[in-house]
Amino acid sequence: MLSACRGRVALFYSNWLIVNASQHLTWNDIQTVPARNVGLVLGAKPGNRYFTRRINTAAALYHAGKVKWLLVSGDNGKKEYDEPSAMQQALIAKGVPEAAIFCDYAGFSTLDSVVRARKVFGENRITIISQAFHNQRAIWLAQQYGIDAIGVNAPDLNKRHGTYTRLREKLARVSAVLDAKILHRQPKYLGAGVTIGADSAHGCPSRQ
After folding, report:
1. Which candidate among 12, 37, 51, 114 keeps its CA 20 to 30 Å from the CA of 195?
2. What's the structural domain count of the chain?
3. pTM to 2 decimals?
4. Strand order in 67-73's β-sheet?
5. Does residue 189 form part of some domain?
6. Arithmetic mean of pLDDT, 102-108
7. Residue 196 included in any domain
8. Within a domain: 111
9. Mean of the per-residue pLDDT values of the chain
10. Which CA distances in Å does 13 have to 7, 170, 180?
């Protein structure tokens, strides 16, 4: 009984923190989004509807002149699974120049993607592209690690198709608060710094 009560409190508190921190920091209308240098596209399983809608939104944001560069960050932990390369190719298919895309192959979690944007890629002001529920958590995490982040909301799935994701998100918010506030967790990998810009040779290097 007590354990269940504590669990409900943790769910409520983490959700309250994250929702309040991201108020007025996300946009649905690309035309009204403040322009920034870099857009961070958060990874998803290639080909699913979350992935496709994030790609469409990121491409539209780029073509609207709201970001100059797109940093695609996702899981590349297995040889046969490569979210960043899939995002890169999908963006190119949407007319985004290859030279405007940078890949982060170690975005194994939202925290990893957000914190690496600063600690590896040197970006302290970013526009995050994902669904609204995900942007809220990503923005809150960014704030905990000294990053000025706003979000552009890709279209979500309807309630019937997004039930599992919404349940998982509730637990992810508790985990995010635990990681940032209690454990002070850092990304799984950091590594050498990368500069995003026209003079950079990084882009999306071939996987080794």
Report:
1. 51
2. 1
3. 0.92
4. 26-27, 148-154, 125-131, 36-42, 67-73, 101-104
5. no
6. 97
7. no
8. yes
9. 92
10. 10, 11, 14
